[in-house]
Amino acid sequence: MGLMRLVGQDEGPDGPSRRQVDLSELGVDALLTRVALGDEYAFAALYDQISPKVYGVVRRVVRDPHQSEEVTQEVFLEVWRLATRFSTSRGSGNAWILTIAHRRAVDRVRSAQASTDRDLRVAAASTTPDYDQVAEAVEDLLDREMVTRALDSLTELQREAVQLAYFGGYTQREVATLLQIPLGTVKTRVRDGLIRLRDVMGVGA
Amino acid sequence: MSTQDLHLLAGAYVLDALDADDRAEFEAHLEVCADCVAEVAEFRETAARLATLTAQDPPPSLRENVLASIASTSQLSPEGSPEEVNAEPDLDATNVVTGPWSWARQFAVAAVVLGILALSMGTWALDQRDVAAQLSARSDVIDSVLTAPDATITVKVIGDARASLLASKASRKAVLVATGLPVPANGQVYALWRIDDSGRAASAGTHVPGNGGELAVPIEGSLAGTKVVAMTIEPAGGSEQPTSAPLAAFTLA
Q1: pTM beyond 0.80
Q2: To bridge A190 with a disulfide, which of A141, B11, B26, B187 should be the other Cys (CB 3.0-4.6 Å)?
């Protein structure tokens, strides 16, 4: 159980709230701080806020809808368990949760495919994100357009390498095979691509 | 890998594009390289923005499932504070540890399990593909037990050997991890059994430990209806039913 039970919590996160604070107005970081205290309402608000991003990236990498739901559930369970260890001094809550989501999604794909050869060509043909699946622009900072523009500012090879790794869930060795370029080139492309994205998006640590 | 090369891996690390060896090497490097720590933090923020592109609403039912699952899941103690201990009293005197286990312990056991898997991989006289397939099937079960929120661990001491059963009631799966098992003579094997209420035993796999007497194996079959998981020594090829007294017997909660 959580470290602390708060007044008004017994009805559960879907019950009537006696809270003064409108949780839906809090950002991910503030919600995580409350989640760390065992606040299930804050967790529900956090879920509402970030689940489209989590599910979207998991779905993108895992592809199978049923497995994507399982992985998404694992991710949120992990967020709940580990919220006590989250610290904004090491990065944003948004990045923290999406790091967990991507890692879990990739783990699922790799464990399922470890003993079979992946069909690289089929996957490679569909590396562009499904823009039509994109939900309404999410709350914060950068909208989809800005991210798309940032991606457009990369060289084609940088963009391909970053997209194959992030959205395709491929290892850098697989990316090298797919793009038929040396591994060392992939390493630099991925890193240069992220540096460029970071600078264009104006991301600070 | 040279330090120069390691610096280059921050991008692939953040995108989870490193294979296990490279990842481990880079994570060790992160312990000593402040520049890479900073770069990883920035890249994580950057990569998180990419998720904006694929955002889509999950099925509504998922929300209920997630909220229900956290309501019955404990949170970890904050870093640095003493580990929460809520082991239940156990009548079996040889049980060294029992009860819900923390992530710290899960990670420790996972490290042991992975180490053992790596060792047994080196000793199996099988072709690479078989090894990979077996390893993958095993590690799927092991993963699922390790990450099960209700997983419990029970440790038995057998002479110089230690055997632990990690069991998840919800997933009806368990994994046996042992160290220091004597390598059996004359081609004998360690056999695992699932024993039900009426004492009937069903085979749950036979194994030969690695050189250091290590074993990290799933209990084959579903644990539905299983009261006890037992380990015996059996002649080469295994037996239909146990033919010797159990070396270890784990009673499931």
Answers
A1: no
A2: B11
